[in-house]
Amino acid sequence: MPTYLLGIDNGGTMAKAALFTPDGCEVAVASRKTEMILPVPGHTERDTEALWTATAEAIRSVLATAGVDPKDIACVATAGHGNGLYLVDKQGKPVRNGIISTDTRAQEYVAKWIRDGVDEKVLPLTMQSLWAAQPNALLAWIRDHEPDVMQRAGWVLMVKDYTRFRLCGKIQSELTDASGTSLTNVGTGQYDDEVLEAFGLAEMRDLLPPVVRSEEICGTVTAEAAAETGLAEGTPVAGGLFDVDACCLAAGLVDSSQLCLVAGTWSVNQYIATEPVVSRDIFMCCRYCIPDYYLMMEASATSASNLEWFVSQFFEGQHQSDTQKDGSIYELCNRWVAEAKPEESNIVFLPFLFGSNATPNAKASLVGLNGWHNRGHALRAIYEGVAFGHKAHTDRLMKFREPAETIRLVGGAARSEVWGQIFADVFQMPVAIPSGTELGALGCAICGSVAAGIYPNYAEAITAMVETSRVHEPNPAMADLYAQKYARYEKVLAALEPVWGDWA
After folding, report:
1. Minimal CA–CA distance to 13: which of 61, 45, 57, 40?
2. Is the distance from CB of 259 to CB of 419 less than 8 angstroms?
3. 3 state SS of 242
4. Model confidence, pTM
5. Three-state SS string across 59-98, please?
6. Distance of CA 501 to the CA centre of its chain
7. Element (H, E) at 337
8. Model confidence over 285-329: pLDDT tens digits?
9. 253 Cβ neighbours under 8 A, 6+ residues apart
10. Mean of pLDDT values over 340-352
11. Residue 395 DSSP label
12. How many C-beta atoms lie closer than 10 Å to residue 68's C-beta?
């Protein structure tokens, strides 16, 4: 009987593959970098064929490292960044570079739809905000700026749908991903002609593939894909997941008692419930992979990538000798932050290097620096500012639900014990850190285990496959201090709001 599950995760910069046992044990992991192409400012793309090559290489590497018989893999499932756009012809061949979810070329279309009231008209159906990297806006842009590309286009795919096509040869969309594109009626889970007409995209209805469920077997690995990846021909391939769903599964979200915070490139803050929230005051409501559940989300590019930038710009070269002696630069950052007392680090950091969850043109800032401050104080401000950015998002979500019992924290920040404790103290809530290093791929493996019939449903699969590595309990003595710090953070935001127009 097959005894392994393969998860594939295509993010904005990496193609990852990981092999798991049915109890959630991570057997082997491999990744390959996928180059971002920046043809002009605001355009973020990738070579779609190169993406598949990187994915196939990662799969081959995992199989070689694990030393398992490919015939022992029960199912393959894929996840990937939501939105963006991967256009292929009717045979599945890319007609242009793929577009990544950080692209802003179509902002003028979103602005026009908002001015014309289109966003309000479609909100009861799409249940989400409009933004420039969604396929509705990108399709409108390509129609007007690259008509030759649109003439050759046969199908609209998300990144993981393209990967799944290369594995099994079937063109399909998948519900969790499709429900986040502003092309569907989230309530029905299907494409909606009224939505397409509102965006002026009615003529593109035939470009939208059939919708499948996450745990549905969509095909099997073809002979061609087997030759490229090392997988066994005939291995079942599941529908897969929007990467935020994959992280929620790996974090153990099966009901509405928990929050899942993803602290990585994006600050993704989410919970699930059986009733959708339809409001302009939250970023997105989409379908969750567990039947009859919706995923409510607040998100922006305001999280741990701020630390990555800060380290790369100011620390890596200067402290190369330190890292050789004491471990990675991030371990050093954790130590410096731990040495800086919270009551002494009174600097405010606005985590807006790559985006904002406040005024659109708001910029990253360190406010309140004095000469006696050291690197630990500045770094603690960054750690706290990222946590405050997450809190701003979750405060919006909390308007629509009862208080949560726990936070499940995943992403780069979850690897840091001091950062996990800061989250617990800021939120005054237990913060649980799931076990594992590649949680997106683990979410895929959980999906694959249900698709393959190893477990009858997601709840039982999560019980068997998800463990907690540690829990950070909130320190009640920090409650007032962090309440004051967060109030100062909000005060600085309000005071600087009139200035941001200078950068428009």
Report:
1. 45
2. no
3. strand
4. 0.91
5. HHHHHHHHCCCHHHEEEEEEEECCCCEEEECCCCCECCCE
6. 29
7. helix 329-339
8. 999 999 999 999 999 989 998 998 899 888 866 544 444 445 689
9. 260, 271, 272, 408
10. 94
11. H
12. 17
